[in-house]
## 1
Amino acid sequence: MRTPDVTVVVAVYNTMPYLTECLDSLVGQSIGRERLQVVAVDDGSTDDSGAELDRFAQLYPDVFTVVHQPNSGGPAAPSNRALELASGRFVYFIGSDDHLGEEALERMVACADANESDVVIGKMVGTNGRYVHQKLYTGNRDVTLDDSELPFTLANTKLFRRELVEKYGLRFPEDMPVGSDQPFTIEACVRARKISVLSDYTCYYAVKRGDASNITYRANHLARLRCVQRIMEHTAALIPAGPQRDAVFRRHFDWELTKLLQKDFPALDADTRRQVCEGVGALVDAYFTDGLRDGTGVKRRARFGLARSGAVEELTRAIAEEIEHGAPPFLLEGGRAFATYPGFRDPAVGLDDRWYEVIGETVAGRLSASTRLESADWEQHGTELFCVVKLRAGVTGDTSSAVVALAQGAMPQSADKAGARKLPADAARPRRSGTLTPDTAADGGTLLTARIPLAATRSKRGVRLYVDVAGSTYEIPVRTDGQPMPLARRWGSDEPHRVAASTNSKGRLVITTAPLREPKSGVGARLRRTLSRSKRK
């Protein structure tokens, strides 16, 4: 009896018509059918999936082994049943709604044999809007759990040496409706002699179904919380406390636990919110080390801190207010910056300032979103003309570093997608000119009134705010949000110039100055009369 090189495990539940493409991609593998075993377990499907499996088994009896069983509620039980029947040197898992590239299995088996790898991860991409983390696939290389993006790619859609699987009795926990592949994958990666990544060929195409019926999308908050608890407990038993465990748990705090505290959290009933808060708080207490805390952005860190303190109402308010109004202002204090989420310096909550502090992260987008124009006008003193702008900025406290200035040219490509950027440490910074008067705004942030002197030149310059936040200087274009612009203005007698304020295509405030030659008639005369009237106002 032949020993196949690889056994492909397919757990199936109601995945027609995607199942057909999946199975076609298996029988069409370049590795050849004589080197392939497919074990497909129909987990009580109620559509035509079971019949489709039987059809392929009839067409390819030397390749397919098909098992039909009552529905178990998740992919773990059918995957375990398939492992009992696997005979290949390697085992590979595929979702029954996904499919493989033609050379996937041949390339991965060759890699495992050449490198003596126990785990091989072929490049995986998403289709139909399915998100798949891509940072692991930067080249063909060997990786470990703590020196790569591997913790963010913990699905079981990998090639495993079956000898490793059987040696350590690796199986899927059948009482986990979602995430049951993570304990299996994490333990396999901990036990493996070598883990290899193949990035130069797309091996796996992960499909998001049109009806979004993948089980991951259907589980509720408490079910997902229980599964994350199980995964983290299993991982903690395998990996001692330290950097390697932190590297794995960063994924769970950044992804699974963060997703429990997002925009759908305030809509949950009070008891569910309390249970989620307690569960997340317990995991924060157990595994959120100082290193993980300080390496997590302040938005997530503050939410984790509120959960840890049992501050359910403050946490609910923090999420709801950010959805409705955007991020809260930053309090600038002694060179440090704090996000003033609910619970900040509230003795009843009892969280240290560190939970709210901006630590080594770029906040350009949030500063840009919270900086907007309130009004703009012209002010003339003798022969000098000033642009007077009032803008609201998302900072409070020590705003002495703030400067409002005109800047030439567009923002560089490295700018934050929202329009702001963090200046390099050695970048030139505008010096203060004119006057700047800060006032605390009633709805948070600071109202800045700037008098910017205008030069009699031909120029087109954007109005930008420069401010120091947590040791870095940010350049933030001022968005107008549909505010009315002042009428164009003429100034100067010896060399008359025209100044105009406008909104550019990105909704930012731009000031244009240009020499003005007095026309004698026609359209030019009407423009001159308009400018003269605006000067008298």
## 2
Amino acid sequence: MPSQDWPVPRLSSRLRASAARGFVGRASELSLFRSFIRNSSGSSDAYRVLYLHGVGGVGKTTLLRRYEDEAWAAGRRVMRIDCRTIAASPAAFLAHAAPALRDPRTVLLIDTFERCQGLEAWLRDEFLPQLPEGALAVLAGRRKPDPMWQADPRWRGTLKVVDLRDLSGEEASALLTAQGVPPSLHPSVVAFAGGHPLALCLAATVADGRPGAAAPSWEPAHDVVGTLLAQLVGDVPSAVHRSVLEICAHALFTTEGLLRAALPGHDSGALFAWLRELPFVEAGPFGLFPHDVVREALDADLRWRDPEGYRDMHHRVRQHLVDRAREAEGPHVLPAISALTHLHRRNGFLSRYLTWRNDGEIYEDGVRPDDTSAVTELARACAGQETAAIMEFWLRRRREAFRVCRRSDTGELVAVLTFLRLAPEDEEENAADPVAAAAWNDARSTAPPRPREHLLIARVITRQEFSTGASPVMDFFLHRMVSEFIHVRGLARSYVVLPENAFWEPLMGYIDQHLLPTRECVDNRSYSVFAHDWRLVPAERWLDFSRKVEISGPRRNRPKPGNAPAMMSRPEFDGHIRRALQSLNRADDLSANPLARSELVRDAATDDPAEALRTIMTHTIHSLREDPQAMKLHRAVEMTFLRGAPTRETAAERLGLPLSTYRRHLTAGVQRVGDLLWHRLHQKRPDINDAVGGQPHP
């Protein structure tokens, strides 16, 4: 029987079908290519060359494969050249691409063009102009086209440049779904990979998709990170250049000044120039920054590979950014503060409260002369008539204390931020503002501001869509608030006023703002007030607290909000001393003692607040021995609190003293310990009154 030829299915058909099912997004790029196909033969002003550029792994090759299918479906002849497989010479290129010069139906797809970037001028000036009318060419590479394309008037209307970006959030989720990743894991995968297709696909291969899997989140495995770095970054010239990349990944923006500070002794200008030329690094108004997935991969790799080196790099970068933030003025303030808070991004805590982005929907601005009615109307609509009256009152007296957030497209107000600075002579104005009155009442109950000192009251009023959880408005508010904390001179106490909501309490504790026990009610709405005493914990000490949590996040034994120190009267201080003495061997009680967060332990050699307070208390007890007249006091205090006599009677018996004499010595000894520590505390803040709460210094 004669054999019969049957069509033989090819594996390539199956692969194309599978790729088509997994293809998501790129609607505008597909629409553009289809219009090229439709218009290429009949329109004299149609584009003929499409130049795609984007970082490695962003999907250029995948899009070219889709273009190939579209071209075949339209009856076009497709020629595809992968520049990884040819020599970067005109002769080698012509050997592969010459047929395109003879057929007007050809669609020439040139992939991985960065491998033949040296041919760019030859292609522009020699090869592409020879394509027959009707033929199309698509170049895809990592680097942007040479500016000469735009400068040459011949290419105007003929060349179309497309910057291929990441997928949108919805598209990224759709890609993960197509890859079989459970929806519960999408947020954590996207948090690492963003919309970068290669990172998403690599994550999908290891994200647990088994039925019944209960993993609440996903973290990138080291092989995923390693693969991404190999694909996106490749080899670098030296270890110093690798350090430059790691600094660029860690900082929000990289400048020559940052490289000079973080890598002393190296040519920061040459290193910055090298960094600037990398295809995955972009330039912004405040410096260079890498593609998001490159940033995440580089930072995760160093943190895993060399934790000690990571911390060292972090601290060098941090010191430069702290200096910049403290020196910044005018329009440079918010970018400098944003760069500083960016250092907290990877500790697993602050990302709950900051969006880390501003997509341009709103911007922060000063109050204009014609904004009064808009501010009061916003306050009335968002809070009520009483709040509107308060805003109008302060606008007449403290217009400089106001900032606003506006919609970028219309200029409409969406939020009002106020940062009132009130000096002692301003106290009479409080009758119109219950929140300001409450702040003054709290200040008077601790230690009121002296002349040339003042209180700061920060609050935000915002439209509903920005009022719950993290939002760009709250980003602006928190960054502006931090700026006030570290820039303002003579700041005695600050008060942050927020609508009563448990969501914000951990954040306020994280930045050492402590919830007052009373709530304020305005327009039948309750507000929480968080306080900080900047004389007790000044900006330098506060920034030091921040340093300790930037990488690892808040410690579990960190005192809870409301238990940390406020400005204490002497009786309050003495009560804390007695409780600390009674709990020297109970770490939890010591951690919760307000003294564990005071200036007393500023120079402690340990980050553990309980251990720091125990050390200073023990040292002070032993210092009583240096005064011969206090030896008997030392013996009573030591026996009671350091040697752990179970009862007062036992302590007296061990000391060979009558109970009444022992008690007298113990009372005087505890008082002397308090006197020494009170004096030590005030030596660390010499700007505070010599008398606090009516009690003189010892």
## 3
Amino acid sequence: MTGLDLSETERHRTSRGRSHPLGARPDDGGVNFAVFSEHATAMQLLLFEHHDSPAPYQIITLDPETNRTFAVWHVRVEGLRAPAFYGLRAFGPEDVPGLRFDPDKVLLDPYARGVDRALWDRGAACRPGDNTAVSLRSVVVDTDGYDWEGDEPLRRTMDDLIIYEAHVGGFTRSPSSGVGRPGTFAGLVEKIPHLTKLGVNAVELLPVFDFDDGEANFWGYSTAAYFAPHAGYCVAPDEGGHLREFRDMVKALHAAGIEVILDVVFNHTDEGNHLGPLFAFAGLDNPNYYYLDPNDRRHYYDYSGCGNTLMANHPIVTKMIVECLEFWVREMHVDGFRFDEAAVLTRGARGEVLDEPPVVWQIELSDTLADTKIIAEAWDAAGAYEVGRYPGYRWAEWNGRYRDTMRRFVRGEPGIVGDVAERLTGSADLYQARGHRPINSVNFITCHDGFTLADLVSYDEKHNEANGEGNRDGNDDNMSWNCGAEGPTTDPEVKALRVRQIKNFAALLLLSRGVPMMLGGDEIGRTQQGNNNAYRQDNEISWLDWSLVDDHAEVLSFWQRMIAFRKAHPSLRQPTYEGPEIAWHGTRLGRPGWTDPDARTLACTIDDLHIIANMYWAPLDFELPAVPGRVWARAVDTSSPDDAETFVDTATISAPGRSVIVLISRPS
């Protein structure tokens, strides 16, 4: 295609339309389309009969005098009804560095509520030439008319949360799941009873905004459309069912008392680097959406490690991000968001880290988002690391310090008990001085990115050969310990030790102040066969094997008991640092060994609980504080499969090597 195609078929009458709101908005009489492009000189709207129609049935050329208001192109299409399938063509200067207009490419609407991939050919969006017949299609979706049956976001307090991180597809894609619609939002709904029995009250879903799942992108961390539920998780995307199916899932989770937190990716998009593909932002207004190299504006600055970086603090991108989040809360009843590589959101026009980044504060101060959880992965791929100092007040953070300290402690490293105490009590050393609270710390041992918990205690080294990158990808320092054998083993002592170590991690996580997050599948011993970077493994490596529910019943039972134990003891969930006083000990009362380079033990007393962590390899005797008129009862013991309470009537207790014991004082 070399210029404007004026051979339009008059199927729908058009009128000027409105410049706001952005996107495609249907009403009783038609649909209003509005798209931002400051540098475009012309714009076309393509309408397709069906989701898999190779050619448009009508091409509407927007008049720059009538259908443009400043930088927004708009048109109203009379008589068009949802669902309807459409695309955009943007025209502009071809010899201006940084602009990437290509009218041969059909583009997505950044505000599209649905995307259809039935004909998508990624390669054609990278090569020269017309890709209309194999392009992505935006879908007009009517957001009204859904029966929420009284549902609202649950608005739990942060100190009440127990988060379960899960991948929508991998959660039920295995045949072992036994669900009727595996790998979908509906499939997850079928497994809600597992979540309620486990006791978690929030799920944090890996990205569910539309992404190209055919491009080694199983996790979904390369977003194509921010307002559209991923078509691959829908049963009927060709019918425009995206919003309805996602809403059905949210409503069902809320009915079970479980909040929905979405992992969102505003640091980069799926458009890659200068080689493409070209299907949305770059083709509409490249220099306003992305950081460009000032020395060669054909190329991108890559703070994300994924080929491009969204310029989050450019006004039009900030507007899109905030409106996107508000849409998912207002229209989809989402309870919160976790922001991938959130340090990118603090970067200014030249990539500098800002003290007061506009987009971060607009998210924090939005009235629509006021009761919404906002959680930052407070680093990026270019070296910005803001754990403990991410801007704002409400922002919680994935606490990487917690993960690293607990991994080192449980594998038996000496001399770090002071750091362990900080992590157990809400990381005051990171947050208190800024007026933050324990609830600003999201504590975790494992997440999607890295070893599963079973692999953390089964492998000393990563085993990523299946990724096809020569085992060079993924983190080389996992702070793991294989308990004496690398990978699968039949040795009963090694297997028993691994179960105990998993329990130790679970116990410490759920005994810590802050917000606990567990990786989905850890409760049943899910393994990735030592792969610590399974981002491209849409197979048994990443899928949850539900047969493990029976195989690892002891581990599952322990997670259930620890979650229930946390819920039963408010002293473990204090929202501020002004909670009950904590007395610290080692094997001897009042002697925690802060400066002992060989210390591998820590104990503490808080309210009616006494916690003992012995990460030494042999049993040790621990002195117990007196509780006049009461007696200590053993409530938790990671070295024992027995969950029955037993009374302790001595002044000391022997803690087996590599174990956690929790005592609770009962009336004598």
## 4
Amino acid sequence: MSASRTERLLNLLLALLNTKVGLPRSILREKVYRDSAENDVAFGRMFERDKVDLRQFGFEIETLTDPQNFGVDDPATTRYRIGKDSNRLPEVSLTPAECTVLLLAAQLWERAALGTAAANAVRKLQAAGGFTDVDLPAGVQPRIKPAGQAFDDVVAAMHGRHPVRFGYLAVSSGREEVRDVEPWGLGSRFGQWYLVGLDRERAAKRLFRLSRMTSAVTVLTGSTFEPPESFNVRAELDSLNELPVQHATLDVDRDRLLPLRKRANSVTPLPAGSNRDRLVVDFRDPEQLAEELASYGPHVLVVSPAELCAAVVRRLQGALDVDAAPSVPLQFPDAGRAPRARKRTSEDQLARMLQLVPFLVHHQGLHIQEVADHFGITRKALIDDLKILICSGLPEGYPDDLLDIQWEDDHVYISEHLDLNRPVRFSEEEAAALLTGLAMLGDLPALAGMAEDQPGSALESVTIKLTGAAGQAGRLAGSVAGQSVAPGQSQAFATITQAIRDGQQLHLKYLSRQRDEVTERDVDPLRLYSLDDTWYFEAYCHSKTGIRNFRLDRVEALAPNGRHVTGSATAAEDFPARLFTPSDDDVLVVLQLTRQGAGLADDYYAERTAPMPDGGLLAEVRFGNAEWLPMFVSQHGGSVRIVHPEQLRKGARAWLDAALAQYDSASDSPAG
């Protein structure tokens, strides 16, 4: 990142904002560019590039012609300026209830492609002074977990209006095909994310399930497209019919796989000597069920239908193929986690500064570390920003023409902002993150315990306010649509939130998939959080004497036990709540993740990562139960392999071999 380029862009912006009559190129070259341009030609090219960069921030640069030379194209007499209201975020005043609803919506995207955009949008509202600090009700933390790296790549392509290319398992033929698609929109229905766009080869609109993509998404940056003006992804997804119910016939080891048995329509013991039962299970999406069945490895055999069987075999074979790839060196950077984000640029730094100055105006005297934490950067990075800011100002160059910022005793104050006291408007991604998030909340605010007369009206009113503030930037919001994140287990959700507020213990019966049993426990509930529409609650478990996480859809019974919480543990300060709680007994495992599976490093809180040449990652992850690793590798077949310890890799390999051997031996016999 070039600090000098950031300073030049900032000085150019300040110069053009703080002039009524405009500035000629000669003044700009002398006062702003100084030694940056060696000659007039170099200056001209640099100035044109910088104007394009400022327009990308939404600043409209006006060109003024000298009236005495009207009609004469003379760059020497042309003046430039930016209106003081150009691209400024309109004033948005939010009530505490609206702030609560908005914070719930923004935090949905915490680890998705729109997470950074949502955080930036909230910071802009805070910088404008229209956002009140609020606490989430009963520790509720909703989040979505989109379909891996493909989601991030498609969102980036939609924003840049670039086509994408990917391998796809066609529903009609069952074959893998390469598709070139203009991505018009992304949306979630029936528990699956869909891409809607123009299939260029077929010259027709098509819908693609992200879970059926068989390769990483390639963004074709050399080409662009324009989506239809009337396109709305919600309308497209509303026309989808849910997949029909099918019946899967499965042979399952006796006394194993209790979660599968509990939802079976029938369980029939197979003839003596087989030690298996035949289960019939309803399903709609073969890919979704195949992911679960693959994780059961050699403990289940898919008898029918053939499509489901093929989907399970494909995952198991993919895991074996990745395991057989050449070994990679176990080398991690000393700093620990390697950043997956793209390299920071001067535009990124300028965007942060345009949030930082108005934030400091409305939050005078904050501790410098508190400011750095608010923007998610290090103290050093913040000081680097401040050093550039205090050297930036108007072309005249007098002391009063500079931004005036002090941080004496580690508390930051600003006394001269040079008309940067209002943040810039929402970008398309920022508007989409907030507006789409609000649409996904559904009944969650009411279920989370907000007053009955507030949540509905607050959700509606804040949506109206932000739609108005977004203006044209709200276009992308019509291209992203998700389902409601309100929990299906509303009664259990209400019981837990009430217990958290009242400080009451809960007694629950819980189906543990890893232990394959139903257990009873007394717990102190701490907080609730979600991944898509799957909700969890974090609690101190008295039988395990530690913090555990429980899925609401696996809670079979739940009620207060009449005792107050013991205070043995409190909700951790980290946000979001971690799905896995580390302990001293964890096993450290080094995983190799493909580009498609790179998101697993975040999902499982990798302690160290290292980028791979193919876009994948080497990740060091803690696992509380090493016996679960073969299930993990099988479930994500083809996206992950164990690199170290070797003993665990061999164990997973034996698990996969045993699982696939069933289908080899069954291939000579008719299904069923």
